[in-house]
Write a structure and sequence with these properties.
The chain is an all-alpha fold and 201 residues long. The chain has two domains: 52 residues, Homeodomain-like (Arc Repressor Mutant, subunit A, Orthogonal Bundle); 132 residues, Tetracycline Repressor, domain 2 (Orthogonal Bundle), CATH 1.10.357. Helices cover 74% and strands 0% of the residues. Helix 8 packs across helix 9. 27% of the residues are buried.
Length: 201
């Protein structure tokens, strides 16, 4: 997650992390459906109101890095250097996210998510939200000159690349394969792609 700078921000981040860690520990030990919000608050030694000031729902406790992932994706667009190709920047970020989400240490978490209809639904809505945020960043970039529809389409492709690669036998190879198709679509979509949108051959 993003490292906070001020003392108050660090304290708030530490509390949030303590709650998330307590929730995940209980969910994995007892099962997601068997654990309630009050159980998590008690385990983290915080008030229920404090828990809800950090997490809007029980599902959000599982996806503690949701906001950080979303910011990383949009920053791949907004923070790249002038004339830096867009698609390779997004591919680099998706590769990092896939690497994180396919590590052996997170396998039990994904098994829990896959077994829960509520968590699967939340994860799907989260991906759609990430795609919309990414699309907004792409459409707002004056160097790219793409329509909102094109920006949304490319953003959906990028988010789907993450989802598909995570489930593949060879996740990193899947990222490369999918992004070849995304790059081809981007060149057609953005006439200036060879200078600002994608890697030159």
């Amino acid at each position: 997650m993003t490292v906070p700078t001020g003392r108050r921000e660090r304290k708030k981040a530490a509390t949030r992390q303590k709650i998330a860690d307590a929730a995940l520990r209980l969910f994995l030990e007892q099962g997601y459906d068997a654990v309630g919000i009050r159980d998590v608050a008690a385990e983290a030694d915080v008030a229920v109101t404090t828990l809800f000031s950090h997490f809007a729902s029980k599902e959000a406790l599982v996806f503690e890095q949701d906001e950080d992932f979303e910011q990383r994706l949009t920053r791949a667009v907004t923070d790249r250097a002038p004339h830096e190709p867009l698609i390779p920047a997004l591919r680099h970020e998706i590769q990092a996210l896939v690497r994180h989400c396919t590590a052996d240490s997170v396998a039990p978490i994904w098994r829990m998510i896959d077994a829960s209809p509520a968590l699967r639904k939340y994860e799907e809505s989260m991906r759609l939200r990430h795609a919309e945020s990414l699309a907004t960043a792409i459409a707002a970039d004056p160097d790219l000159s793409v329509t909102p529809t094109a920006a949304r389409a490319i953003a959906r492709f990028v988010i789907d690349a993450y989802s598909l690669a995570r489930e593949a036998t060879d996740p990193q190879a899947a990222v490369g394969e999918i992004f070849q198709m995304i790059e081809a679509a981007w060149v057609v979509t953005c006439p200036s792609a060879n200078s600002t949108g994608t890697a030159r051959p």
